[in-house]
UniProtKB/TrEMBL annotation:
Reaction it catalyzes: ATP + H2O = ADP + phosphate + H(+)
Compositional bias (Low complexity): 1-16
Chain segments carrying region Disordered: 1-31
Organism: Amanita muscaria (strain Koide BX008)
Domain spans labelled AAA+ ATPase: 78-368
Pfam family of the protein (one): TIP49_C
One GO CC term, this protein: nucleus
GO molecular function, one term: ATP binding
Alphabetical list of SUPFAM superfamilies matching this protein: P-loop containing nucleoside triphosphate hydrolases (SSF52540)
Subcellular location as annotated: Nucleus
Protein name: RuvB-like helicase
Assigned EC number: 3.6.4.12
GO terms (BP aspect): chromatin organization; DNA repair
Residue runs in coiled coils: none
Length: 472
């Protein structure tokens, strides 16, 4: 008889993390600055929930971005751009990431910083053009004739090698496939047998073979061979339904940038010298406008035939005021293109001189002709209560426990200096707590962090007061 025991558990603290799931218990994942952002956190009516999807506050900006998402989904945002303006650390990048998540995982999202255009290998306009092309997806739907089923037989038939008096070669291979509806025996070319060996296919695997190209793909192991005590990391799939020979619709997602790169790269020979030469040539090559027009023509033909669908993605350019007047001019022309993605710009500047000019001072450092194309959304600063909620949220995401009064102390530091400074104290303070043998951060840990690390305002005031050496 099996004995049963009853255990009582105390209620978890209000700021404790939920128990980790099975996958995360064995392997820790990297915590990024915006790991807690899961979307815009809007109701079906488009109203912002106060604290939702990782966002604290910013209700006006989130609701405005929700309208932008609806415009993008209805394909009515072409020719325009979204400009996010606000002080550093107010959530501009988080809003851009939330928009991309609201659009879906299949929509390409290409972030960049304004300074990336100043490359020593390619022109500024080429960098912008590449990013725009990578942000335009192409979903290709193709119907193929395939043979699909569980392998029941795999018998190579050998014959005398005509090129040599010794040894034998594979003349053909007999493959038996089984589905729920029936079985079929295939007599395949020896080149397909090489692909079968490469995929490490054995009896009991579920595969499909393309009738036109002879490509072989291993789907997984038949679930008839699965058992509860197997330790191997194997993918078990059910026995395919229908006939062995069937028509199957395959969907492939690529970007226009992928097509440009594939057509621009020289297709050298298959010998070892050609392969080594391609490895040595690591420099970037510019794609000509003529090649892009040819790719667009082919893509348009596929779209007209109904074989492919264009999926406009999102280009996010942070610190857009770093771009110069030539880049802004080219950005204008890219926005007017018939195959332009959604463009989101972000800046924390007020009135600023447009780069590479001497007398053009414009709002946010952006020329007015481009500014007229933008729908501008402003992010607000955070109050004391919102800073405390963000600090608690980040502590939960990072798996940190906070002692009494720590959240209020972090809110005070964030209100006095900046939200980023308050959040940056969390992880170092947890290291001090661990060294002291504690499992939660206490007030003295935050106080010691203030002594070790200065915030930006304190550092600036010490420079003005002569607190640093003259060499700094």
């Amino acid at each position: 008889m099996k004995a049963t025991t009853t255990t009582t558990t105390s209620a978890p603290a209000h700021n404790s993390m939920p128990p980790p799931s099975a996958p995360s218990a064995g392997r820790s994942s990297r915590i990024a600055p915006h790991s807690h952002i899961k979307g815009l956190g809007l109701t079906p009516e488009g109203l912002a929930i106060t604290d939702s999807a990782g966002f604290i506050g910013q209700t006006n900006a989130r609701e405005a971005c929700g309208v932008i998402v609806d415009l993008i989904k209805s394909r009515k945002f072409s020719g325009r751009a979204l400009l996010l303006v606000g002080a550093p650390g107010t959530g501009k990048t988080a809003l851009a990431l939330a928009i991309s998540q609201e659009l879906g995982v299949k929509v390409p999202f290409c972030p960049m910083v304004g300074s990336e255009v100043y490359s020593v290998e390619v022109k500024k306009t080429e960098v912008l053009a590449e990013v725009f092309r990578r942000a335009i997806g192409l979903r290709i739907k193709e119907t193929k004739e395939v043979y699909e089923g569980e392998v029941t037989e795999l018998t190579p038939t050998e014959a005398e090698n005509p090129l040599s008096g010794y040894g034998k070669t594979v003349a053909h291979v007999v493959v038996g496939l089984k589905t729920v509806k029936g079985t079929k025996q295939l007599r395949l070319d020896p080149t397909i047998y090489e692909a079968i060996l490469k995929e490490k296919i054995v009896v009991g695997d579920v595969i499909y073979v393309e009738a036109n190209t002879g490509a072989v793909k291993r789907v997984g192991r038949s679930d008839a061979y699965a058992s509860s005590y197997d330790l191997e990391s194997e993918t078990y799939v059910p026995l395919p339904k229908g006939d062995v020979h069937k028509r199957k619709e395959l969907v492939q997602d690529v970007t226009l940038g992928d097509l440009d790169a594939a057509n621009a790269r020289p297709q050298g020979g298959q010998d070892i010298m050609s392969v080594m030469g391609s490895l040595v040539k690591t420099g970037r090559t510019e794609v000509t406008d003529k090649l892009r027009r040819e790719v667009n023509k082919v893509v348009k033909g596929y779209v007209d035939q109904g074989v492919a669908e264009v999926v406009p993605g999102v280009v996010f350019i942070d610190e857009v005021h770093v771009l110069d007047i030539e880049s802004f001019t080219y950005l204008n022309s890219l926005l007017e293109s018939s195959m332009a993605p959604t463009v989101i710009l972000a800046t924390n500047r007020g009135n600023a001189l447009v780069r590479n000019t001497t007398d053009i001072i414009a709002p946010h450092g952006i020329p007015r002709d481009l500014l007229d194309r933008c729908m501008i959304v402003k992010t607000d600063g955070y109050g004391r209560e919102q800073i405390s909620k963000v600090a608690q949220l980040r502590a939960n995401v990072e798996g940190l426990k906070l002692g009494p009064g720590v959240v209020e102390r972090l809110a005070t530091e964030g209100e006095k200096s900046s939200l980023r400074y308050a959040l940056q104290l969390l992880t170092p303070a947890s290291i001090l707590a661990q060294l002291a043998g504690r499992n939660q951060i206490e007030m003295e840990d935050i106080g010691e962090m203030n002594e070790l690390f200065l915030d930006a305002k304190t550092s600036a005031s010490m420079i003005e007061a002569g607190g640093f050496a003259d060499g700094l």
